[in-house]
TrEMBL record:
Signal sequence extent: 1-21
Entry keyword annotation includes NADP: no
Top-level taxonomy: Eukaryota, Viridiplantae, Streptophyta, Embryophyta, Tracheophyta
Organism: Carex littledalei
GO terms of biological process kind: carbohydrate metabolic process
InterPro entries named in the record: GH28_Enzymes, Glyco_hydro_28, Pectin_lyas_fold, Pectin_lyase_fold/virulence
Family: Belongs to the glycosyl hydrolase 28 family.
Keywords: Glycosidase, Hydrolase, Signal
Protein name according to UniProt: Exopolygalacturonase
Gene Ontology molecular-function annotations: polygalacturonase activity
Length: 468
């Protein structure tokens, strides 16, 4: 038998590789005509041990230069990477059964600490992430000492690039970008914040799952910083720190809509602030389920900005005590405005509407402004509040944190009000379990008369005999 010519072997190998690539494209369900670039064609190994950064970045760059399309991480691979930079017009597709793993070394990330992300898009238009797979920050590798109260974390602040133990990489970031899309993806085990939008315009976040270590601090789910026209829907967030957190550091946050989400957190499920130098306005949170949070809904103005025209509707909340190391004392609704420092300006909070809210909590609603930063025009309509103690953590504390007065010993009340002008309660019901009454908690309202005016009650009920 004559030997097969080398050129023929080469052609057969090329044909086989092409066939496999076409099979991968077909299996991925990509059939809409957009160009698709497989990272394996650019040298990615996907064994979880060798870095695939160069191959992934090459596929992204070629896709961008070709006018855009998809960069595909095929199923079955664990693709270890340092920071990869997403470009305009490129959608990163992490296929179901594939994982993109973030590196755990400081040299895996750019020199500037504010660019420490596993996936980073800067000044991009039309960039996105999808695919049904997983982006994993390997957050467990950043835990120095596991602790149920609060984990001790790695800090990369020895170089002076940042300060404190928050010197850890975030998972996914979009900076100064437009038309952002993140959908059908799992974001798992971030070392720090998970998904971060910074000065972005027109972002769409849909059907993503976020899982963070429940005992690790700064494990935020979605942070929306100085970004406008953001839509978040059908997301599942289970993490240790604030779940959905708008922040205004260099500009306002306007037109945020969050719908149909499920949240569990050891901190605040929804938290506006505490970075609040500019305005928050025109927000809608609707059809949200909050499970065992340390705080349910929080609006925390500390830096002179203002919050107004916010609607929270059709929300189910359960809150419970965790260790006092974590901010929050199980408040289902927590609205506060106070200067962070003596030199800080006072901000205002106005025109907030809470409608069709039900809560089971270990603490009461907390509404607190200041002399120069009153809360104005707060409406609670069709709100059912059930108070029940089931943990053994101590109560009897007002929690003004972050900053301000800190923790203050005080008898617990169903509704605490101070420095409020304009509070409308319509069909608000408070009920106490027997266990709560045994623990000495049965005060429906607490307020200082000289700090509160324009309060109206319509069909308000307080019951102390609920047997649950």
């Amino acid at each position: 038998m004559e030997p097969i010519p080398l050129t023929l072997i080469s052609l057969l190998l090329i044909s086989l590789t092409t066939s496999q690539c076409l099979d991968t494209r077909r299996e991925s369900g990509i059939s809409d005509g957009l160009d698709t670039f497989l990272v394996t064609e650019y040298g990615a190994i996907g064994d979880g041990k060798h870095y695939d950064t160069a191959a992934i970045q090459a596929a992204i760059d070629v896709c961008h230069q070709s006018g855009g399309g998809r960069v595909l991480l095929p199923s079955g691979g664990d693709y270890l990477t340092a920071t990869v930079f997403l470009k305009s017009g490129v959608t990163l597709v992490v296929q179901e059964g594939a994982r993109l793993l973030g590196g755990t070394k400081e040299e895996d990330y750019p020199n500037e600490s504010d660019r420490w992300y596993v996936v980073l898009a800067e000044n991009a238009t039309g960039a996105g992430i999808t695919g049904g797979g997983e982006i994993n920050g390997q957050g467990g590798e950043f835990v120095v000492l596991e602790n149920e109260r609060k984990n001790v974390m790695v800090s990369w602040n020895a170089t002076g690039k940042c300060s404190g133990d928050e010197c850890r990489p975030r998972l996914v970031g979009f900076l100064d970008s437009k038309d952002v899309k993140v959908w059908d993806i799992t974001l798992n085990q971030p070392a720090y914040w998970c998904l971060h939008l910074v000065r972005c315009q027109k972002s769409w976040i849909h059907n993503i799952s976020i899982f963070g270590d429940f005992n690790s601090p700064n494990n935020d789910g979605i942070d929306i910083t100085d970004s406008n026209n953001t839509r978040i829907s059908k997301c599942h967030i289970d993490t240790g720190d604030d779940a959905i957190c708008p922040k205004s550091s260099t500009g306002p946050v306007v037109k945020l809509t969050v719908t149909d989400c499920w949240i569990r957190t050891k901190s605040s499920a929804i938290k506006l602030g505490s970075a609040s130098y500019f305005d928050f306005r025109q927000f809608l949170f609707d059809n949200i389920t909050i499970v065992e949070a340390h705080r349910g809904i929080g609006v925390q103005i500390r830096d002179g900005g203002n919050a107004r025209d916010l609607v929270f509707s059709n929300i189910k909340i359960s809150t419970r005590y965790y260790d006092p190391l974590w901010w929050g004392r199980a408040e289902p609704i927590y609205i506060t405005s106070c200067p962070r420092f003596s030199t800080s300006k006072s901000g205002s909070i106005s025109n907030l509407r809470f409608e069709n809210i039900s809560a089971v909590s270990e603490n009461g609603v907390f509404l607190s402004g200041t002399n120069h930063g009153l809360l104005h025009n707060i409406t609670l309509k069709n709100v059912n509040l059930t108070y029940k103690r089931w943990t053994e953590y101590p109560g009897g504390l007002f929690d003004y944190r972050p900053d301000c007065q800190g923790l203050v010993k005080h008898n617990t009340a169903g509704l605490m009000i101070e420095h409020v002008s304009g509070l409308d309660l319509q069909n608000v019901k408070m009920s106490w379990s027997k266990s709560s009454l045994i623990n000495g908690w049965g005060t429906p309202l607490y307020f200082r008369p000289n700090t509160v005016d324009k309060i109206s009650f319509h069909e308000w009920q307080s019951e102390k005999s609920l047997d649950i």
